[in-house]
Design a protein that fits this description.
α8 packs across α9, α8 packs across α10 and α10 packs across α11. Helices cover 39% and strands 16% of the residues. The radius of gyration is 22 Å and the shape is globular. The longest helix is centred in the last third of the chain and has 23 residues. The termini are far apart. It contains 12 helices and 11 strands.
């Protein structure tokens, strides 16, 4: 594992790599190492979100990104890290992640032919001691006991005390912390995200920067989809992609309005296009990619979205 960033990006280089202009230099690594995500050249970086994430890397700010699912919150952080050659690890805070998973636990191991008990560090102590960007996905779904463990490290100088080891871990100077959430810490006030929790306001206050990431504009999403569907870059198919993105946008509007409970993300649109290349039928590909996982009582509404954009009627 590298000791820390060995170069600074600034000015024209930052603009060329990220498409944004900032007034500060960005620490970066010259070469990728283990845990550095691969660069996805087709991923569309949102300028404002990119600036915020870069500020997190440059000034060691704790950054929490909120938005609807499928907007690419976690991937956005990964792709900024990839372009900085910064190791990045994601932890999904689902209901199965416990305090022991994060901190570590005693384990029985063989040493010199004898069984001995030794402490095995979890991912959190390991990440704290290395130049790693740690991303907590679904931050608002974490269990209370897990959230209080995280609270210890939310402050920049936040040292982690391992009570079982009588040891205090000081964060590495290149350790960075990010989080993503569907809500802003107030719980599921809309009824759209069951399982999310209210976040302790004292803990929420420890996040230095909170920002929101929305879905791409239509033309930008079309560009992303076409970048993943290499054989579709002809006028006829480009028109199909526009119709597909318009269907997706209607599902998002319906989801926000509470008319339907399932939503089309850009990756669903890409899967739709890939399936269409296989089955050669836009309606069948739509059913296989999206409609079949929707609530039966909502399929007529979704079929109406489909007909409105493509002019093709679905049998539901």
């Amino acid at each position: 594992m590298l000791e820390g960033p060995d170069r600074q990006m600034q000015g024209d280089e930052v603009h060329d790599v990220f498409g944004v202009d900032v007034d500060w230099s960005i620490p970066a690594f010259s070469e990728p190492a283990e845990h550095v995500p691969p660069v996805d050249a087709a991923y569309k970086l949102d300028p404002e979100t990119t600036r915020v994430i870069l500020a997190g890397f440059a000034f060691n700010r704790r950054v929490l990104i909120q938005g609807y699912h499928g907007t690419g919150k976690s991937t956005h952080i990964e792709q900024v890290a990839a372009r900085l050659n910064w190791p990045c690890v994601r932890i999904n805070l689902d209901s199965h992640i416990s305090r022991i998973d994060l901190i570590g636990k005693d384990a029985i191991v063989l040493r010199d032919g004898a069984q001995v008990t030794e402490f095995r560090e979890g991912l959190l102590p390991w990440a704290l001691q290395h130049p790693v960007a740690l991303v907590f996905d679904e931050y608002d779904a974490g269990r209370p006991d897990v959230m209080f463990v995280i609270q210890r490290i939310l402050e920049v100088e936040g040292r982690l005390t391992l009570l079982d080891q009588n040891r205090v871990i000081t964060p590495h100077s290149a350790f960075r912390l990010f989080g993503t959430a569907n809500t802003v810490g107030l719980g599921d006030t809309s009824g759209l995200y069951h399982g999310t929790q209210q976040i302790n306001q004292g803990q929420l206050d420890r996040w230095h920067i909170l920002t929101q990431l929305n879905y791409l504009e239509e033309d930008a999403e079309i560009e992303v989809v076409l970048a993943h569907l290499k054989d579709w870059q002809i006028p006829e198919r480009e028109q199909w992609v526009r119709q597909m993105v318009q269907v997706a946008e209607l599902t998002r509007q319906g989801f926000i309005a509470g008319d339907i409970s399932t939503i089309m993300s850009p990756r669903t649109v890409i899967a739709w296009g890939q399936n269409m290349s296989i089955f050669r039928d836009i309606a069948q590909a739509f059913q296989l990619s999206f409609l079949n996982r929707c609530d039966e009582t909502e399929r007529a509404t979704i079929a109406e979205y489909f007909q409105r954009c493509t002019g093709v009627e679905l049998k539901v």
